[in-house]
Every structure is written in structure tokens, then in C-alpha cells.
Amino acid sequence: MPEIFGTVYGVEFHPVGKLHEYTSSEALLKPGDFVLAMSEFGLDVGKVSFGPVEMRIDEIGEELKPIVRQMTDEDWATYQKNKEEATSAMATCQEFVEKHSLPMRLLEARYMFDRSRIVFYFGADSRVDFRELVKDLARTFRTRIELRQVGIRDEVKMTGSLGLCGMTACCARFLRQFESITLKHAKKQQLLINPAKISGRCGRLLCCLSYEQELYEQELMDIPDEGSIVDYEGKTCKVLTVNIFLKVITLVADDGQMLKVPFDSFRMSQRSIIQDANAEMLIKNRDEDISIDD
Under CATH, what is the fold of the domain 226-275? Predict the structure, then answer.
């Protein structure tokens, strides 16, 4: 069966938001062009992030919808008016939130291009009963109301923040999707398990812990963790330190002899792990692992 290809563009509706794949029957678009396309909420304004690229239909993870058209001068006027009225709607919604004493943090209001719906994004520490709020908003704006609660990571992504490094938080700067981060990442990178040092503004483990994880896993392959007991060349030894930068493992034998062994030499030697310190720690703390997944 012949492979079927399509011309695909990546479109974002929010800066650093999820990329959606579309096709277009118009003249070739280029990154940076603004277009009208159907989002999950309705007709919306998006920005072309990449394309055109040829992709096999079976590689596309979602239904390939067509871009309606590139933005015109008239479309821009409508879009600007919608943005101004969305700002006003945000203030009105905040008044209703305070009226009903709802524990929610409003983040953004967004009119769909054809004004068929207005979407309010908010953050909250728990589920919120906003049925009365929706009734007030529907009576005021006379259009369909969508209240969308986002997770704490997406909340920081929308509001922006500074990371511990002093730079704009990765989520607000370039990350489009979040990876699962657990304490295993910090342990593998030999970091102190200090929540204040390894947590971001969102209170979850730092996204950047994943950046070097693959390198650490490769460099430490077949290297036991500190505290492990190993049988090394006929001697029972305890692993004192593992220096990934010098690529040296320090052992102390049961007779007190101190051994400094390069990673490559240790891998090539006759050795076996008698007691894996990290495995014991993982069993002990398996219910204490922290993940940034919602």
C-alpha cells in the first residue's frame, strides 16, 4: 500500500503552548505568519511555528484540520477588539469570583475569533464549584462560557517566573510539554535532596533535572552507587565516592585498603554487586518519590 503524505504546519495558539498540526490549501505559509484555524474551543487566531513539512499521515498524532486562512487586515481589527473586550471580561469575572468567594486565581480570558465562546483560564489548589459563576457570566456576556482549570505548572507557564538560575523559567521561555521528573533524577545526579534547591516556582521538581539525565545514565552505566557493597577482584569493598567528572570510583576494602579505580577499569574487571545502596534506598523511599506530573 503506497504511503500517503500531507503538507503540515505547526500552529500555536499560546506562546510556548502545545503545537497543533494543520494543513493548508493556500499559498505556502511561513513561520511567523498568523492564521485562523479551528482550536478545541472554536475559531481562533494562531501563529505558524514550523512548516511546511511533508509528513506521512500515519505519523500525525491528531486529526489534520485545515487552516481557514491567513489573517487579513479586517481579521486583525476583529482580533484586537476581542483582546480589548477580553481584558474587560477578565475584570468582570474577577468581581464575580469575589462575590461568590471562590478559591480560584484567574489567569486569562480569551474570546474565540467569532465570539462564539469566551474561555477563562484559572488556577486553584482544589476543585472549584463554579456553577453559579458560570450562570452570572452567561447572563452578562450572552455567549458560551468555558472555565478551564490548569495545573500548577501550566499556571506558572502562563504567568511567568524566574528560575533559581536567574533566567526566565524554562516553562515560560521554551518548554512546550512537561516531562515526568522524580527524585530518581536528583539521586542519579548526586544532588542533595533539598526541596528548596531542586524545586521550581511551581513547587514541583525542576524541569531542568531532565536535561542531563541521559548523560548521567550513560556515564554511570554499570557503576554502583555510593554506599554499595561490591566484590572487586576478590575483595569485599564499599563504594565511598563516585566522581562522574573524573570518572573515578573510590572503594575501601574490608582490610582498610583504599582503591581509586577509573570507570573503564572497573567495568572491565571481575566484580559483582553484593548490596546495592540505591536499590535499598528506592525500596525504602518508593512512596516518597516526588513527580511533577499532575
Answer: SH3 type barrels. (2.30.30)
Length of the chain: 294
Q: DSSP letters along 112-130, please?
A: -TTSSEEEEEEE-SS----
CATH no. for 76-150: 3.30.300
Residues 6+ apart with CB under 8 A from 128: 102, 103, 104, 122, 149
3-state secondary structure of 181: coil
Helix axes 131-141 and 73-99, enclosed angle (nearest 10): 140
User: Quick one: pLDDT at residue 283?
Assistant: 39
> What is the rounded average pLDDT of the residues 110-120?
95
User: Between these two residues, 174 and 55, which has the higher pLDDT value?
Assistant: 174
Report angle CA 27, 30, 52 to the nearest 5 degrees.
Answer: 75
pTM of whole model > 0.85?
no
